[in-house]
Fold these 3 entries.
Entry 1:
Amino acid sequence: MPTVTYVEADGARHVIDVPVDENVMHGAQYNNVPGILGECGGGCSCATCRCYIDEAWAAKVGGPASDAERDLLIGADGELKPNARLSCQIAMTPELDGLVVHMPEHQF
Ligand code: FES
């Protein structure tokens, strides 16, 4: 099963198995990883699941998948950071095995 490393703002790391086709937000929620809230349940409407893709993975994951995701990220950060994503919008694939995502200091 692919793994995702979730890195908290203070540097604490959580290496979690996340099944293929599951999204990165659920991977955190189901394993009690702090820092990703996911208040809308993955509906792309809250931005409390935002994360920053590690530089080494940015090209593989790609940019926001939709205008809605882009708008939410701008609303949360005040700008569109190049590596920002909503973790609920990233579905795991075998190619993403080893993905590293960084969490913001806070989601609000
Ligand atoms: S869980 Fe709400 S936007 Fe991702």
Entry 2:
Amino acid sequence: MSDGLSRRDVVRAASVAAMLPLVGAFSASAAPRRNPTLKIGIIGCGGRGTGALAQALNADPDTVAWAAGDIFADRLDACLANVASSVKLNGESRTAIPPERRFVGFDAFQKVIDSGVDVVLLTTHPIFRPEHLKAAIAAGKHVFAEKPVAVDAPGIRSVLESAADAKRRNLSLVVGFCWRYHDGMRATFEQINGGALGDITTVQTTYYTGTLSRHPRKPEWSDLEFQFRNWWHFTWISGDHVVEQAVHSIDRLAWATNDRWPARVICLGGRAARQGPEHGNVFDHFSAVYEYDGGMRTFHACRQIDGCPSDNTDYVYGTKGSAVINGWTPTFHLKDLRGDTLWKYKGRNDRDMYQNEHDDLFAAIRAGTTINDGERAAYTTLMALMARMSAYTGQTIAWDQALNSKESLAPASSALAWGDWPTPEVAVPGKTKFV
Ligand SMILES: NC(=O)c1ccc[n+]([C@@H]2O[C@H](COP(=O)([O-])OP(=O)(O)OC[C@H]3O[C@@H](n4cnc5c(N)ncnc54)[C@H](O)[C@@H]3O)[C@@H](O)[C@H]2O)c1
């Protein structure tokens, strides 16, 4: 902790604070409850990072934005210019990061981590998550890390090690699989995991949407900058959309099976409607069949093609009934085998799941307890990665094979410099080899 305070000091302060109302009964001059200020560092000042920083600051009044890092100065400046208005209490003063703690470059992450922060928000493109997470945990920081947690198997193995390291060091690691922090989802999956549908026989999830932003090349951009400005469309930076976006639906598929991991996957995919350099080398559709020991099969399909209907629904089937789940509409409905309602979510829909993530993280830090989503997040991301590996190669890919893959897409930050960077080729099933 900063300010020379140890975890034990914080816990002791919290116990004293808990006693204050009682003390107040005897002493009108008792000091108001005051927590040590937690310093927050943000690494990756884009859309999600800006939201996460405001949510972290809104989660606990005794926090300040202490340091910020990005590879682009324009993104960092825009984030800090916008975030103050989303902070409910003293936004201007709590987000006023001086120039000496604003870092730009591929090494910015280490400078943020070394700046004296207590909590780090990792909200860059997925490629950097394993490296940044390892550095943050090794330095003893609590972490909020966005999903997905890696773009390749070496990254997954690194995240598994970091998650174990966080456990050893009593550090919290909250991962942005935000639906796990959504009230309606939590209640619904509690019903399913508790047996309301009987034994789960299969699950189908979908993530059909349009294509994501494209930024035409500017003359002053190098190859590498062009790829980073269009990161969603480059597999080595994003993981491809089955990993970057549809991993939310794959995570809920896993949740419905009580986090049972598949033995293998066969996934079909391709690139039917993507054209032009901004579209990089990612596919635009995937359709995965996961197979489990014992024979159960589950299904996931995703598409990013304009002009087609969108859908982001989960269908869960069990021996006693089925469920239709959609967080956006919102629909949380369990039916019996005749189609009659077994259960419907009637709880609150007014709490923001992104805010809940930070409320839980900071409550855990204040209480001296920990949350560690790391291992589950790594395995969910691996489920998405193995689908991509199968679609790119045209082969059935086993769980252990995927976990032990030697394909490394993410160079170390120290190996990156603005300049020439070849456009990666689009995979061709049957020709592209599994590595
Ligand atoms: N949980 C959700 O619902 C949700 C929603 C949106 C995005 N995300 C995830 O959040 C992450 C960020 O997405 P986004 O939409 O904010 O993208 P974005 O492009 O808006 O922001 C990413 C930022 O990270 C910066 N960056 C990249 N590499 C960096 C590095 N090495 N060091 C410092 N900064 C670096 C970029 O310059 C950019 O400003 C992605 O992993 C994405 O999948 C999650």
Entry 3:
Amino acid sequence: MNVDVAVIGAGPAGSTLAALLARRGMSVCLIDREEFPRDKVCGEFLSYDALPILERLGVADQLDALGAPRIERCRVVGRTRDYEFGFPQAARGISRFALDELLLRHAVASGALPRIGWTAVDIDPASRTVTIERNGERDVVEARVIAGAWGRWGRFDAQLNRTFVRDRAHRSFGFKRHYRAETVMETIDLYSFRGGYLGVSPVEGGITNICGLAHASRLAKHRGRWEGFVEMIRGEESRLESLYAAHVPAQENFLSSEPVIFRARSPVEQGIVMIGDASGVIDPLTGNGMAMAIQSAALAAPHIAAIVNGKVEAAREYSEAHKSFFDGRIAWSRRIALLLSRPALLDAVLRTFHPRAAGEFLLRATRAGDGDVAHIVREAF
Ligand SMILES: Cc1cc2nc3c(=O)[nH]c(=O)nc-3n(C[C@H](O)[C@H](O)[C@H](O)COP(=O)(O)OP(=O)(O)OC[C@H]3O[C@@H](n4cnc5c(N)ncnc54)[C@H](O)[C@@H]3O)c2cc1C
């Protein structure tokens, strides 16, 4: 297959990019190893600063049709008191089963050529070819630009010799499960435990998602068995004990993530244009990873179009635009997450600050401003 752009990964970043480029009349191959709908370790909180892009794509109405709850407030649950603040606009709770399939279908309806269920097994940055494989069958996609949208951890990160792969000191792992409770939630709640935290929020169908992140040092004894780990943190924090006691699992097992390493990353590696988590991971506590994935696709689309049209320096321009759009948010998210993974310190801080002022600061430091989102929307469409 010979295309303008090969996009590896059909998560929120890859599918958004594929739709935007196909709408510009480009030939785009969208590759993902999974069949959809598929689950994903994620708090499934879709931040409000992604919504203007979904509105322009014409898929925002579908969130209503899917029954995605509106989430207007965040509650930080400390040991001795809670701390609540509002969002400037409603965010949405939407499962990854539903959202990722919605965006993938939209990309295909926009004209992207899907290779779903195909694994990209090799990339050659020099010849810009991607080898894909499914059930022993092989194919080669030749592209003028390869876009890396393979998420936070993939085989190509090692192949491209990306430095974060060697970082063993800052690894965390995520875990997630859907639950039912007597009361359907209306807020997103954040709970702290030593070395990690939990996000609890509603998604469609009256389901509550409890999704956590724990530093690798806390998991050594548990060897991937999340039941034991959750028992341990319930014993440590009484608020977590009450939370889990009020929820009945709606999924058979916990879902476990690959290693999560929070760092800004290079947005272009050997000519491959990275988007979404592959271009930098914001701490999940912000609930802003999917928004960043969608925004980075919108930011990248005009630059990729320019590269396809022969403007070589557009790759450098994308790198600079990406750094100024995201690096500050990634750095702040990490600082705030370190506070959330220290329950005693968190309590002390909650006693000191006014909820509204601190909430506004947290949102400003980790989200894109309205003007910035409006700008990337203007350039992307
Ligand atoms: C514990 C935790 C909680 C989180 N909570 C939230 C939250 O509440 N809200 C939020 O906005 N974000 C949250 N995030 C972050 C969010 O999940 C990511 O930022 C988001 O999924 C990034 O989207 P993406 O498209 O870049 O990558 P992904 O969604 O990871 O998609 C990558 C795709 O690439 C495919 N792929 C990978 N390798 C290959 C290959 N070789 N060949 C073919 N296909 C391949 C995968 O199958 C996958 O479908 C959380 C993350 C964690 C770890």
